């Protein structure tokens, strides 16, 4: 059982992540006023001190604490950490993402550090309702305060109790942007907390700067410094994990409670390669690291374990999910060097200084056909992983860098992938669009489908064949030998949607009866983990097709292929019509042909 402390945007995201498991957990807020829909989670409202928190954890067999509270809730952070320490529970801190500090902002550590000007001032405080009591003594005839609070009864009552008048109270308006709000209130000074991206800090600062408003911001408390007195460094290192997004949260939960989620997520080869490059650069500096943080394409950061490292090199073991994955457990190695620029003067020197060059390592493929977003002749490191690696490198150095990625047994593994079909030779590709492999998404497989379609488009194909596997491909080619055929596995919907987005004029879909009965019911992903043959649906199709007398035979079959033996032609025509209708949802224009394929 898991107990989450929320009441924030991060709390809401934590709920969404935990709900995916389909298991019970508890979500605690101080006031109970946060609007939130829970399906499996149970709300717990009301503040808890350390004793109440310990009692709750014991009575409800809590095995993990997640602190997703506001970054300035230092007392709660310390209490949660002390309870985790006392009860021997792991702790996950769901931290916000914070932008780089803006030099145009006056940063202070507390209200007492603010340097007030002598001129009359209209001050708008967005520090929260609980700060009003500390600001009231600063009010003067020349310094008028407005207090911006949440439009909640409890907040209004607390504001009044601290001395704020109705004329001083203003509310956060979700339907009004920051600039319009500031124009309406016309402050000379805006007081903010460093509330991070989810708190809209950057938008508030940008709006104030545009209007010439002075911005004073309280630096956020350092979380680890807040809890250190209660638990100590050794306990934090062993039992406390920091995350700043839903993907990292899921992985952290999987690490300490592997039974909570039914299936395990993993890292893409792109994320593993990025971590290896980052560790290799640290090795050049003489640094050592057991884990490094890698920024995913959506801005979230995840921690990746480093297997081994040295000056200019590092290895990462491929972290795999419960999806099929030919690279599971493989060793991914990065070697980096910072060669001296070949041109020291004149045109091109600056470009050479900041160049990042990718070199082909053993087990990583080489591109031989256009359409993959990578130049022919380059190592098969896909565009998104390249951008991830380049971003991490540029944070660490502005020098020219050569990067060589290798994958253990990559040449042999490539024979079990789609690489030979898209013109990638000598090894596998470094792939990944999100950085994380979500169970049952088969992200790598779907991406491979897209890559094959892009190659077909690049070499001039305006028609494409789609088949679930080898038998379907052979059937399509027997009827149309010049057709380029791509395997969609279970992802017929994803394949057709991508074909439509790329502008293919014609799509020919070959489908076996086992997948056809699922597609006919509207399932564009036919994976057996998600959908099974529905005999009641098939009986209804038979009735609508006017062959109700044959429908009784459906109850006696165990495999869909048996339908060929017991059902008349009209039944398959009805299935075909339904399959075509559902495929049109994702391939709305162009010529579409659905071919039911009978196994020999």
In short:
This protein is an alpha/beta fold and 600 residues long. The chain folds into four domains: 2-97 and 223-256, Rossmann fold (3-Layer(aba) Sandwich); 106-218, Rossmann fold; 266-437, CbiD-like (2-Layer Sandwich), CATH 3.30.2110.10; 461-597, no CATH class.
Walk me through what this model shows.
The chain is 35% helix and 21% strand. It is an alpha/beta fold. The strands form 8 sheets. A 6-stranded parallel beta sheet has the order 3-2-1-4-5-12, sandwiched between helices. Strands 6-11-10-7-8-9 form a 6-stranded parallel beta sheet, with helices on both faces. It has a 5-stranded mixed beta sheet with strand order 16-17-18-22-19. The two termini are 51 Å apart.
Major sheet description: 6 strands, parallel
* Percent strand: 15-25%
The CATH topology of the largest domain: CbiD-like
Total of domains: 4
CATH superfamily of the largest domain: CbiD-like
Query: Structural class, please?
Result: alpha/beta
Shape: globular
| Average pLDDT for all residues | 88
What would you say the CATH architecture of the largest domain is? 2-Layer Sandwich
Rg, Cα atoms, Å = 29 Å
**Strand order, biggest sheet?**
3-2-1-4-5-12
Regions with little confidence, pLDDT below 50 for 5+ residues: none
> How many runs of DSSP E, i.e. beta strands?
29
Task: State the helicity in percent bands.
Answer: 25-40%
Return the CATH class of the largest domain.
Alpha Beta
């Amino acid at each position: 059982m898991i107990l989450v402390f929320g009441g924030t945007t991060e709390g809401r995201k934590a709920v969404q992540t935990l709900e995916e498991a389909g298991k019970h957990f508890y979500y605690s807020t101080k006031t109970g006023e946060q609007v939130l829909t829970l399906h499996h989670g149970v709300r717990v409202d009301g503040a808890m001190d350390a004793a109440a928190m310990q009692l709750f954890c014991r009575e409800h067999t809590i095995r993990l604490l997640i602190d997703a509270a506001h970054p300035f809730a230092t007392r709660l952070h310390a209490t949660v950490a002390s309870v985790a320490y006392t009860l021997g529970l792991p702790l996950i801190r769901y931290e916000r993402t914070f932008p780089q500090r803006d030099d145009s902002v006056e940063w202070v550590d507390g209200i007492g550090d603010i340097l007030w000007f002598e001129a009359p001032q209209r001050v708008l405080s967005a520090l929260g309702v609980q700060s009003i009591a500390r600001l009231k003594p600063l009010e003067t005839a020349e310094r008028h305060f407005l207090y911006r609070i949440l439009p909640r009864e409890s907040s209004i009552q607390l504001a009044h109790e601290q001395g704020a008048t109705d004329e001083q109270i203003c509310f956060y308006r979700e339907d009004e942007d920051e600039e319009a709000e500031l124009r309406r209130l016309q402050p000379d000074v805006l007081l903010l907390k460093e509330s991070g991206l989810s708190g809209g800090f950057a938008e508030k600062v940008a709006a104030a700067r545009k209007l010439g408003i002075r911005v004073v911001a309280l630096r956020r408390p350092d979380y680890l410094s807040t809890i250190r007195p209660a638990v100590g460094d050794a306990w934090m290192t062993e039992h406390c994990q920091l995350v700043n997004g839903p993907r990292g949260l899921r992985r952290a939960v999987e690490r300490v409670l592997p039974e909570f989620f039914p299936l395990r997520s993993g890292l893409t080869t792109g994320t593993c390669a990025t971590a290896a490059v980052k560790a290799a650069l640290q090795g050049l500096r003489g640094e050592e690291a057991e884990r490094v943080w890698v920024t995913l394409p959506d801005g979230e950061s995840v921690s990746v374990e480093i297997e081994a490292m040295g000056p200019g090199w590092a290895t990462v073991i491929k972290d795999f999910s419960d999806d099929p994955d030919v690279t599971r457990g493989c060793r991914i190695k990065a070697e980096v060097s910072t060669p001296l620029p070949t041109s020291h003067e004149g045109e091109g020197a600056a470009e050479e200084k900041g160049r990042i060059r990718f070199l082909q390592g053993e087990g990583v493929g080489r591109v031989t056909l256009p359409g993959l977003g990578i130049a022919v002749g380059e190592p098969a490191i896909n565009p998104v992983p390249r951008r991830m690696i380049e971003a991490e490198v540029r944070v660490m150095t502005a020098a020219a860098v050569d990067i060589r990625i290798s994958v253990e047994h990559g040449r042999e593994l490539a024979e079990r992938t789609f690489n030979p079909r898209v013109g990638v030779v000598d090894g596998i590709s470094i792939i990944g669009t999100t950085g994380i492999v979500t169970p049952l998404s088969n992200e790598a497989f779907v991406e491979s489908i897209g890559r094959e379609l892009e190659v077909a488009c690049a070499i001039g194909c305006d028609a494409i064949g789609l088949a679930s596997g080898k038998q379907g491909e052979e059937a399509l080619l027997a009827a149309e030998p010049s057709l380029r055929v791509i395997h969609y596995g279970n992802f017929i919907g994803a394949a057709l949607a991508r074909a439509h987005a790329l502008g293919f004029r014609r799509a020919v879909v070959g489908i076996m009866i086992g997948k056809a009965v699922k597609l006919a019911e509207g399932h564009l992903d036919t994976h057996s983990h998600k959908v099974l043959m529905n005999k009641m649906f098939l009986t209804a199709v038979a009735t609508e097709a006017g062959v109700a007398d044959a429908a009784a035979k459906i109850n006696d079959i165990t495999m869909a292929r048996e339908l060929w033996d017991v059902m008349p032609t009209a039944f398959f025509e009805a299935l075909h019509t339904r399959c075509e209708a559902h495929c049109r949802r994702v391939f709305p224009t162009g010529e579409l042909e659905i071919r039911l394929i009978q196994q020999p």
